[in-house]
Write a structure and sequence with these properties.
400 residues, alpha+beta, 14 helices, 8% strand
Length: 400
């Protein structure tokens, strides 16, 4: 399993962070018991005997595990809403909510601290008037858990709003496009299939291409070799699928294959096209007969321009790289800005052919963006085609 896959598993996990909280709470019990045995008893500690300590710890443990069900319910409802109302691809955004994970960790840690302390507070050899640190920490953790639950409810109610969701995705898409360009010498020279023997590197895993490290791949190519990348970030590949074809008279090192990370999920950070797809899915779902919410689709169109602007300003997709040793890497499968425009605005326009509010939002947003791109000297012909098609449809509907 590659490092990228491990990182993505950790980010999606709803178990790891709460598990860390539980482990830390057990260690905190040991620290509290050691402090209780010491003579360091500050005045701010809550004085308590063994019986009252047991009563308080039992109360905290019982109440916390009860309200923990509220957190779990909100999490389940949020996931269900994201999958049914927005798009199944947005579930990943919900699962990666760090505030949600740390709230669960704090709640479960508080329950574990109270439960373990309850089982050990009257262990043989303990002073009956000593559990001051344990009781005080239980009260502090209980109050912190209650506060975090209130904050979590506020956080979830804000996070599930569609405006917040599409804004968050659009910003991540823009960041992804700005970081996508590889810092490597480019080459526009024409190429032909070399006479050298061809070596085909195939996938040993099944999943999505999460990352293609162009610099690492170039670094390990033999001098003068020509390599063609037969996939691109976001593609789904099965075991045995062709990844890279290398023409070289020398053996191809295994590090070339290691430069391609394959995992179970796609990520917007390395694959901004996923964010484009998520936003388009939300708009298409909003335009479906069952929901019929053209205002939301219009908002999505406006937010899509953030990612499409970054895609255009970052330059055209690089199709060829050249290393210092003369090795070349060809990436014919790299996505172009025109493809991103067609896969998003094109589909939304087709679904919104009878929705003037969406078409008008598209025309206005495209006009504003193309003006900027033309001034910057960028090719925006794909955007202009979509704008012209949307304008034509508005004229047919009598809303020009």
């Amino acid at each position: 399993m590659n490092v990228r896959n491990v990182i993505e598993r950790i980010r999606d996990s709803q178990f790891l962070v709460p598990a860390v909280g539980i482990v830390l709470s057990v260690g905190l019990v040991a620290v509290a018991h050691n402090l209780d045995r010491s003579s360091f008893i500050p005045a701010f500690l809550i004085g308590s005997g063994t019986d009252s300590a047991r009563t308080l710890l039992a109360t905290v443990a019982g109440s916390i595990i009860t309200v923990a069900a509220l957190v779990f319910s909100f999490t389940a409802v949020t996931v269900q809403m994201a999958a049914t109302q927005y798009s199944p691809r947005i579930v990943q955004e919900v699962l990666r909510d760090r505030f949600q994970q740390w709230t669960i960790a704090l709640v479960m840690g508080t329950f574990t601290f109270s439960l373990v302390s309850l089982a050990t507070v009257d262990a043989p050899g303990r002073d009956s008037n000593s559990p001051n640190w344990t009781v005080t920490l239980a009260v502090v953790l209980g109050v912190a858990s209650a506060t975090s639950i209130v904050g979590f409810i506020d956080h979830v109610t804000r996070r599930v709003r569609i405006d917040d969701t599409i804004r968050r995705i659009s910003l991540r898409v823009g960041d992804g496009f700005r970081a996508e360009r590889a810092d490597s010498p480019e080459s526009d020279e024409a190429w032909q299939v070399p006479a050298s023997p061809a070596t085909c590197l195939r996938s040993t895993d099944t999943g999505f291409v999460q990352e293609v490290d162009v610099l690492e791949l170039l670094e390990h190519l033999p001098p003068g070799a020509v390599a063609r990348l037969d996939i691109w970030t976001g593609d789904f590949v099965g075991e045995g699928a062709r990844l890279v074809t290398v023409w070289s008279d020398e053996p191809v090192p295994k590090e070339v294959r290691a430069a391609i990370a394959i995992g179970e999920t796609r990520t917007v950070d390395q694959d901004p096209g996923l964010g484009i797809r998520q936003l388009a899915d939300v708009a298409l779902r909003a335009l479906s007969p069952g929901i019929n919410d053209p205002a939301t689709a219009a908002d999505v169109v406006r937010h899509l321009m953030v990612g499409l602007r970054a895609a255009h300003l970052s330059g055209s997709r690089v199709r060829s790289f050249t290393a210092d040793n003369g090795a070349r890497l060809l990436t014919p499968e790299a996505r172009t800005t025109a493809e991103y425009v067609a896969d998003s605005l094109g589909q939304i326009r087709a679904a919104a052919r009878d929705q003037p509010i969406v078409l008008r939002a598209m025309v206005d947003a495209i006009d504003a963006l193309t003006d900027e791109l033309i001034e910057a000297g960028r090719d925006c012909s794909a955007l202009q085609r979509e704008g012209a098609a949307a304008t034509q449809r508005l004229e047919e509907l009598g809303h020009a």
